[in-house]
Amino acid sequence: MKAICATDLSAASEATIENETCLECLGRIGVAEIHLVTVIPSNVHAGMPGIDFEERREQALARYKRVIENAGFDAEAHVVRGTPHRRINGIADTIGAGLTVVGSRGKSPLENRVIGSTARNLARTTVTPLLVNRIEREVDEPDVVREHLFQRMLYATDFSENADRAFAAFSYLRHATQEATLVHVETPTDPGLPEEDEDPKARLEELASQLEDWAIETRTAVRQGDPAAEILAAEAEYEPTTILLGSRGHSRLRRLLLGSVSEDIVARADGNVMLVPPDRMA
User: Fold this and answer.
1) CA-to-CA dists, residue 213 to 81, 196, 241, 280, angstroms
2) Which strands, in side-by-side order, build the sheet including 33-40?
3) What's the CA angle centered on 146, arms 56 and 200, to 5 degrees?
4) What is the DSSP letter of 194?
5) Secondary structure of residue 190 in the 3-state scheme
6) Is the pLDDT of residue 58 over 80?
7) What sign does the CA torsion over 260, 266, 272, 276 have?
8) Where are the alpha helices (DSSP H) in the chain?
9) What's the CATH superfamily of 152-276?
10) Are 81 and 70 in contact (CB under 8 A)?
């Protein structure tokens, strides 16, 4: 599998790239080739006072590339100009990437603003599964918050087609997953949703049995209330390393489980978040 690793060359983006455990987790799920992508906004120029982009960029990318290659991956670097999330998606599409990784914190107001708001933009537009790697906030030398990326997963579902697609990611995540919590949030009836005859608890148990066949210790939970709030409450209760969900759900009319809720989770979760987009061919 090929993966995109987006970096703005900040200390926060270094935390993802230089964390040995994070790299090991990527290797365990089948990533063999990592493409570093740094995007220079169109309104930033190399000649701006106090900014030596060329030298800093070359030094940082060379260091990152060595770290990745020393960890056993093939590595390539891409330096492009434009809107970060659009260029990241474009490169991911061009190389046939199976995963995009981006940090969730950035402090580079004049540099490549890949990390921060771009994570939220990618949550809406990503063309590959997106892993938002949570970085410590408000510290001078930040580290990743939860380095065992896929060890304990919290999977949130509304039983939509895209949620099923997100669950299918366990086919490769299972090689790094030890525990999983499967959560469904019941909300007031939405006219855009089909009637379901099957009890959600039974549907979760059916999914759980598939994971247990892979020796993943699994629990299920049906919660009631606001989807984003309940998913975050489940994160606080179960302390997963990563929340897994689809980026779209049943309804475009309301804030149900998936859709705008996925953006809220990316912005507010304490740990990592993995979003799986719909099949573009569907």
Assistant:
1) 46, 26, 21, 30
2) 74-81, 33-40, 2-6, 99-103, 130-133, 272-276, 242-246, 152-156, 179-186, 217-224
3) 130
4) P
5) coil
6) no
7) positive
8) 11-17, 20-28, 53-70, 84-95, 117-125, 161-167, 170-173, 200-212, 227-238, 260-268
9) HUPs (3.40.50.620)
10) no
* Every domain of the chain and the residues it spans: 2-133, 152-276
Which candidate, 173, 241, 188, 236, places its Cα nearest to that of 31? Answer: 173
User: Is 152-276 in the same CATH topology as 2-133?
Assistant: yes
Note the pLDDT tens digit of each residue in 235-272: 999 999 999 999 875 544 444 444 578 888 888 888 99
State whether residue 99 is helix, strand or coil. strand
280 against 96, higher pLDDT: 96
Give the largest Cα separation in the chain, rounded. 65
- By CB atoms closer than 10 A (0-12, 13-18, 19+), residue 86 is middle
Nearest-CA neighbor of 201 among 216, 220, 187?
220
Q: At what angle do helices 117-125 and 260-268 cross, to 10 degrees?
A: 150
Tokens coding 11: 């200390």
Q: What is the CATH number of domain 2-133?
A: 3.40.50.620
